[in-house]
Amino acid sequence: MRVDLNADVGEIDGTDERPLLMQVTSANIACGFHAGSPQLMRKTVELASNLDVAVGAHPGFADRDGFGRRAMHLSEREVGNLIACQLEALSGIASAAGVRLKHVKPHGALYNMAACDVGLASAIALAVKTFDPALVLVGLAGSELIRAGELVGLRVAGEGFADRAYRSNGTLVPRSEPGAVLRDTQTVIDQALRLIGGEVVASTGENVRVRIESLCVHGDTPNAAELAAALRRALVAAGVRVEPLEV
Questions:
Q1: How far apart, in whole angstroms, are the C-alpha atoms of residue 203 and residue 166?
Q2: What are the percentages of helix, strand and coil residues in the chain, rounded to 5?
Q3: Calculated CA dihedral for residues 17, 5, 124, 122, nearest 10 degrees
Q4: DSSP state, 149?
Q5: pTM for this one?
Q6: Paired sense of beta strands 155-161 and 214-218, if any
Q7: How many CB atoms lie under 10 A from the CB of residue 72?
């Protein structure tokens, strides 16, 4: 078995993300709309590259006050422009540093809405393909975003969340609900291993079938680096190869 271990980074200026990036194989870098800045993007790209971590874009809604976690209702054209603008920004910064983007993973509300909204998912997938058809589209395993990526011919990667509770339909429990974020290290490890094995237990007790290629560790979670380190040790001990996505 193999899995990519990814982290959402470049979102909070002044944070030392080296310890976290030393544990993961892919970095999803904020592109300046929900968080981040040109300076932070450059710093994070260079740090990830120096650590041999695959660099990807983490585009979100233009909602810095809500950290991109508030739903916004845009036309498909507006969504396409939103994605293209952020990819252009990060790609330009990465190119100047001699780094090529490998993947795209939408952020926050954009990610969760695209998991269920066919039109939104299609707009994102088409924008990614138009920008660079070699990019891997990362989305919630089994979601409309994954299906949209497949339909336009993109390489896709289903993602699982070791530190988030699931609903019985395979979507994530909203952060506004109690128990949505899993904080106990052993609970996170147990869920990660179950996800890699092809299933997850929903908050209501049902076993939900999933197929993942990547696991996420949220960079804004307290003690994220320590959690990622413990998770990676447990994966290796279980015989799982922790490797970046195949591009």
A1: 6
A2: 40, 20, 45
A3: -160
A4: H
A5: 0.96
A6: parallel
A7: 16
Tokens at residue 125, please? 């997938």
Structure tokens at 85: 């603008």
- With CA atoms as reference, report the closest residue to 108 among 159, 78, 63: 63
Question: Are β-strands 103-104 and 155-161 bridged in parallel, bridged antiparallel, or unpaired?
Answer: unpaired
Residue 166: burial class (beta carbons within 10 Å; 0-12, 13-18, 19+): buried
Structural contact between residues 141 and 181, judged by C-beta atoms closer than 8 angstroms: no
Place of tokens 């790609």: 91
Number of H helices, E strands in the chain: 8, 10
Q: What is the pLDDT of residues 74-114, one digit of tens each?
A: 999 999 999 999 999 999 999 999 999 999 999 999 999 99
Tell me the Ramachandran region of residue 108: left when phi exceeds 0, alpha when psi lies from -120 to 50, beta otherwise.
left
Cα(191)–Cα(161) distance, integer angstroms: 8
Q: pLDDT (tens digit, 9 = 90+) per residue, 21-59?
A: 999 999 999 999 999 999 999 999 999 999 999 999 999
How far is it between the farthest Cα atoms of the chain?
49
Q: How far is residue 140's CA from residue 133's CA, in Å, rounded to a whole number?
A: 20
Tokens 């993973």 belong to residue: 105
Question: 29-54 burial, b if ≥16 CB within 10 A, otherwise e?
Answer: bbbbbbbbeeebbbbbbbbbbeeebb
CA–CA separation, 145 and 172 (whole Å): 14
